[in-house]
Design a protein that fits this description.
By secondary structure, this protein is α/β, with parallel strands linked by helices. It is 29% helix and 22% strand. The chain is built from 14 helices and 22 strands. The strands form five sheets. It has a seven-stranded mixed sheet, with no helix packed on it. Strands 18-17-19-20-21-22 form a six-stranded parallel sheet, with helices on both faces. Helix 8 crosses helix 12. The longest helix has 19 residues. It is elongated.
C-alpha cells in the first residue's frame, strides 16, 4: 500500500489526498464548505471542516476522531492512502458528537483488530450512539495520565470534560509535541489550505466559536488549561477549523484571556500580520457570483505578499466582519443585481462600516446579473463614499460565467491584489475617489 506524505502545496485539503502535519501524522478529515448553519445555532460563513488524523507508530496505527457520516467516503479514501485497515490498532474518539463519530461504525467494521478508546465519561453516550451493549463493543476508557503505546511513540490522554460535552478529552503525542484537542481551540472555518499560517483570516470565527460553544463552560476551560499549558506544543490539531502550527501557544493564551482568568495578557490574536490582507465578501442567488468570488480570490492569491479570505454573506452575521474589515487592507464585495439593486446583506455590511475608519483602504465590486447589472456601480459609489480607493474598475458578468469570463475574474483578482500590495504602481495611484467606469466583460466576449 502506498504511503502518501502530503497534498498539493497550493491547496493541501482538496481532492482526497491526506496531508502530512507532522512526522508520521496525517490529516485525513473532510471539508464542508457549503455548510451555513451548524447545530441550528451557529452561523458558518465559510462552512466547516471535520478534522480526523492518523498517527503511525512502529507497533501500529492510531486513528484520532472520524468525520460526519455524509463525508465517510472521503475520510476512508484518505485513510487508505496512509494505512491498511489491518495496521490500525487504536481508534481514539476525543468526542462522540455525530460530526466526529459518524464514520465510526464503518471504521470498526473495516478495522476489526482496532480497539476503541474513549474518555471515562463516554461509555453511556457510546452505547446510545451505536445502539449496542458492552458485549458488542470493544473499548477502553482512559483518564488523565493514561497512555497507549504505539511502539516508538505514545498517545497520552487529558480528561477535559464539558468542552463542550461531558465526554470530551484531548490526546497528546509527546514525541511530536502535537495536541489533538477535540473541539477545544477549534472553529467553523473551512479553507482547503488547512494550516493557520496559510488560510484566510479566521479570528472572528475562532472567537465566535468560543463565545457560543466554550463560554458557558469557562470553569471547565480553566481546568483544561491547567493540563494543557505545561505541555510543549509545536502544533494543535482541533476537530474543526485550521490546524494551528504557527505560534500555537497564542491560541491557548487567548482561551485563558477569554475565560476571564486574572492574567495580564496582550491580545494575542490581534498581532500585526506581515502580509497585506484582502477580504472577498459575496452573496450568490444561483452560484454565479460565488464562482466569480472564488476565481477572484484565486487570482489574488497568486500575487506575492497578500493574504486572501473568502466569506459568504449568506452564512454570517455582518457585525463580526466589521473588526476584520477595520484591520484589513482591502475588501471586494460581490452581489447579484436583484430588482435593480444590490442585495440587502451587502448594504447591511456597508452600513455597519460607518463606525470604523476606512480611508486609504482599497475597495472593489463585482457580481453577476440577469438584466441590467446596477449592483456593481452602486456598490462602488458607496465604497467611494466611505473613503475607500477603488483603483480597479468593477467587474460584472451576465448570468453564468464562461471559462473565459472566469479567467477575467482571475485577472481582476490579480489586478486588485497588485493595487493593494503596490506591485502595480499605476493601479495603486489611480484611486483616491476617482470615478471609474464599470467594464461589462459580457459585452466584450
Amino acid at each position: 500500500m502506498s504511503r502518501t506524505t502530503a497534498g498539493s502545496e497550493g491547496q493541501p485539503g482538496t481532492g482526497t489526498t491526506p496531508v502530512a502535519i507532522a512526522d508520521g501524522v496525517h490529516w485525513i478529515g473532510a471539508l464542508d464548505p457549503s455548510l451555513r448553519r451548524f447545530d441550528l445555532i451557529l452561523r458558518t460563513a465559510n462552512g466547516t471542516t471535520y478534522n480526523a488524523y492518523a498517527v503511525r507508530g512502529s507497533a501500529g496505527v492510531a486513528v484520532v476522531d472520524t468525520v460526519k457520516a455524509e463525508f465517510a467516503d472521503t475520510f476512508f479514501a484518505r485513510l487508505e492512502q496512509v494505512a491498511g485497515y489491518d495496521e490500525i490498532r487504536v481508534i481514539v474518539l476525543n468526542h462522540l458528537e455525530p460530526d466526529h463519530s459518524g464514520a465510526l461504525p464503518e471504521l470498526m467494521r473495516r478495522a476489526p483488530r482496532a480497539k476503541l478508546v474513549i474518555s471515562k465519561r463516554a461509555p453511556a453516550m457510546l452505547k446510545a450512539l451505536l445502539k449496542a451493549d458492552d458485549q458488542e463493543i470493544r473499548y477502553d476508557t482512559v483518564d488523565t495520565g493514561d497512555a497507549i503505546d504505539l511502539g516508538d511513540r505514545r498517545l497520552r490522554f487529558l480528561h477535559t470534560p464539558f468542552l463542550h460535552w461531558p465526554d470530551t478529552q484531548c490526546t497528546y503525542l509527546p514525541e511530536q509535541q502535537v495536541l489533538f484537542s477535540g473541539d477545544v481551540f477549534g472553529c467553523h472555518h473551512c479553507d482547503p489550505r488547512l494550516f493557520n499560517d496559510r488560510v484566510g483570516d479566521f479570528r472572528f470565527a475562532f472567537e465566535y466559536y468560543y463565545a457560543h460553544i466554550m463560554r458557558p463552560f469557562k470553569a471547565h476551560v480553566l481546568d483544561a488549561l491547567k493540563l494543557i499549558e505545561p505541555l510543549p506544543l509545536k502544533l494543535i490539531a482541533p476537530t474543526h477549523g485550521p490546524i494551528l502550527r504557527e505560534r500555537p501557544r497564542r491560541y491557548v493564551a487567548r482561551y485563558r484571556e477569554l475565560s476571564g482568568a486574572d492574567m495580564a495578557l496582550e491580545p494575542v490574536l490581534a498581532d500585526a500580520k506581515p502580509l497585506r490582507t484582502l477580504l472577498v465578501f459575496y452573496l450568490s442567488a444561483y452560484g454565479s457570483t460565488a464562482r466569480m468570488a472564488e476565481a477572484i480570490a484565486a487570482g489574488a492569491e497568486g500575487v506575492p505578499g497578500i493574504r486572501v479570505s473568502l466569506y459568504d454573506l449568506d452564512g454570517g452575521e455582518t457585525e463580526p466582519f466589521v473588526d476584520l474589515i477595520e484591520a484589513a487592507d482591502a475588501i471586494a464585495l460581490g452581489s447579484p443585481t436583484v430588482n435593480g439593486d444590490a442585495v440587502k446583506p451587502v448594504w447591511d455590511l456597508l452600513s455597519s462600516l460607518a463606525v470604523v475608519s476606512l480611508r486609504g483602504k482599497v475597495g472593489a465590486a463585482f457580481g453577476s446579473y440577469g438584466w441590467s447589472g446596477e449592483a456593481v456601480p452602486m456598490i462602488e459609489d458607496r465604497l467611494r463614499g466611505l473613503k475607500l480607493r477603488v483603483p480597479v474598475p468593477g467587474l460584472r458578468l451576465k448570468l453564468i460565467p464562461t471559462d473565459a469570463e472566469l479567467a477575467d475574474c482571475r485577472d481582476f483578482g490579480q489586478a486588485l491584489a497588485q493595487a493593494v500590495t503596490g506591485a502595480d504602481g499605476a493601479a495603486a495611484e489611480a484611486g483616491g475617489g476617482a470615478q471609474k467606469p464599470v467594464i461589462d466583460f459580457a459585452d466584450l466576449a
